[in-house]
């Protein structure tokens, strides 16, 4: 059996079309506004921020990009965040991570108004998510949920195994999968580097979500026939002939697709969903500020 490919590119495209329409319909009441703040010159961060601004622009979202010197002080960054907390044109504030070592990331993220925290990383939003309350869901886990839902994958009662327990992917995605609602209601196991027998868990997964950051670590003999695989991993494993970064997921796609019933590719799987969910959160925020949600 060769798996159905769950295309993040196609799903993201469909959601972006919906958002574009929604932004156009909102135009006489509110124009959603997003600011991205980048500190330093990390090339990967630069390209993520550029992609976020480009997508915002394409959807009719007002977007501002601030690039600061790598030597920027924590106080100056805090002051900038505060400025955008009070800017009525801006409904979403995104500070691109990682920040330079001399800046306390948690302090910066905590300074963002939770009502403008479209990344969903502020403790207030994390707390609301865990309690199942209305909040901004973190973008990558939210993207995973949308992919499963829009691909018609039944999560209720499913054995979901998540590999990786980071604050931005593993922990929130595991939490969302066990929530009592659509695209939830699963029985969830969370694995990490201290897990004693990883194969025992991955082999009984109906849905396997991998976010470990280790290229091709999950092989066909570690999954059961018919599993649905969501590969969050993005690993640079060299260069293509055209000089672009060659990417691999955390799952050995070629072998696992022969056993899975459905699988996301890398690239073109979870990646395109993350930025799309950022846009969705920004539009949601604008609606809330305009009293329309
Ligand atoms: P991270 O903070 O480095 O966390 C990795 C997690 O995986 C840790 O919890 C670690 O366990 C676990 N892990 C690592 N190696 C393992 C192994 N051999 N066996 C079991 N568990 C293992 O990474 P992250 O930020 O969550 O990102 C994970 C991957 O997703 C990366 O490739 C990243 O580039 C990608 N990513 C993609 C998107 C997207 O939009 N597509 C967004 C975010 C991240 P310990 O806690 O025990 O160390």
UniProtKB/TrEMBL annotation:
Keywords: Amino-acid biosynthesis, Histidine biosynthesis, Hydrolase, Methionine biosynthesis, Multifunctional enzyme, NADP, One-carbon metabolism, Oxidoreductase, Purine biosynthesis. The gene is folD. Catalyzes the oxidation of 5,10-methylenetetrahydrofolate to 5,10-methenyltetrahydrofolate and then the hydrolysis of 5,10-methenyltetrahydrofolate to 10-formyltetrahydrofolate. Belongs to the tetrahydrofolate dehydrogenase/cyclohydrolase family. Pathway: One-carbon metabolism; tetrahydrofolate interconversion. Its EC number is 1.5.1.5, 3.5.4.9. This is Bifunctional protein FolD. GO terms for biological process: L-histidine biosynthetic process; methionine biosynthetic process; purine nucleotide biosynthetic process; tetrahydrofolate interconversion. NADP(+) binds at residues 164-166, 234. The keyword Lyase does not apply. Homodimer. Residues 138-288 form the Tetrahydrofolate dehydrogenase/cyclohydrolase NAD(P)-binding domain. GO terms for cellular component: cytosol. The lineage of its organism: Bacteria, Pseudomonadati, Thermodesulfobacteriota, Desulfobulbia, Desulfobulbales. It catalyses: (6R)-5,10-methylene-5,6,7,8-tetrahydrofolate + NADP(+) = (6R)-5,10-methenyltetrahydrofolate + NADPH; (6R)-5,10-methenyltetrahydrofolate + H2O = (6R)-10-formyltetrahydrofolate + H(+). NCBIfam families: PRK14186.1 (NF010783). Residues 6-119 form the Tetrahydrofolate dehydrogenase/cyclohydrolase catalytic domain. Pfam families: THF_DHG_CYH (PF00763), THF_DHG_CYH_C (PF02882). InterPro entries: Aminoacid_DH-like_N_sf, NAD(P)-bd_dom_sf, THF_DH/CycHdrlase, THF_DH/CycHdrlase_cat_dom, THF_DH/CycHdrlase_CS, THF_DH/CycHdrlase_NAD-bd_dom. GO terms for molecular function: methenyltetrahydrofolate cyclohydrolase activity; methylenetetrahydrofolate dehydrogenase (NADP+) activity.
């Amino acid at each position: 059996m060769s798996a159905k490919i769950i295309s993040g590119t196609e799903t993201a495209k469909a959601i972006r079309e919906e958002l574009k329409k929604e932004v156009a319909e909102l135009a006489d009441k509110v124009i959603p506004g997003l600011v991205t703040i980048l500190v330093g010159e990390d090339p990967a961060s630069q390209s993520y921020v550029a992609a976020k601004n480009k997508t915002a622009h394409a959807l009719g979202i007002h977007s501002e990009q601030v690039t600061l010197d790598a030597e920027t002080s924590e106080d100056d960054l805090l002051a900038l965040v505060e400025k955008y907390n009070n800017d009525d044109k801006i409904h979403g504030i995104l500070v691109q991570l990682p920040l330079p070592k001399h800046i306390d990331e948690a302090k910066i993220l905590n300074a963002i108004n939770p009502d403008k925290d479209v990344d969903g990383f502020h403790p207030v939003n994390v707390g609301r998510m865990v309690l199942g309350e209305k909040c901004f869901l973190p973008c990558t886990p939210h993207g995973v949920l949308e992919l499963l839902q829009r691909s018609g994958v039944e999560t209720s009662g499913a054995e979901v195994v998540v590999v990786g327990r980071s604050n931005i992917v593993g922990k929130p995605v595991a939490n969302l999968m066990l929530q009592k609602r659509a695209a939830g209601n699963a029985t969830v196991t969370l694995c990490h580097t201290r897990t004693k027998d990883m194969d025992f868990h991955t082999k009984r997964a109906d849905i396997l979500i991998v976010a470990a950051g280790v290229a091709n670590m999950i092989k066909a003999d570690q999954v059961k026939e018919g599993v649905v695989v969501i590969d969050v991993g993005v690993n640079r494993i060299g260069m293509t002939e055209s000089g672009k970064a060659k990417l691999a997921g955390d799952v050995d796609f070629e072998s696992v697709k022969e056993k899975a019933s459905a699988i996301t590719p890398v690239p073109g799987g979870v990646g395109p969903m993350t930025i799309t969910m950022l846009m969705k959160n920004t539009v949601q925020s604008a609606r809330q500020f305009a009293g329309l949600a």
